[in-house]
Amino acid sequence: QVQLVESGGGLVQAGGSLRLSCAASGMIFSLNDIGWYRQAPGKQRELVAVIGVGGMTKYADSVQGRFTISRDNAKNTVYLQMNTLKPEDTAVYYCKAKGTWGQGTQVTVSS
Q: pLDDT-based confidence at 29, cuts 50/70/90?
């Protein structure tokens, strides 16, 4: 059974940084694409970034150049480094793999 556990969210001022982690179990981590998504109040969940098996990455236009997704296959963990945060980045951030979602971690950016 695939399990994903996110951590690293919190409250930060605009312009600040956070690093989110997503620890995976119950699957062959190195053979799966992993994605970070977010959902702000009253809005649909949206893709933030995804990292493929070979390390290829893709980002939403809104975070390109500010966020970096990476993976450590030895630790079964994916990271999302978020820099130059904006109030509009406020959302619950989720990771997803093999059709399974984590429980999410709240990120709040104050202006």
A: confident
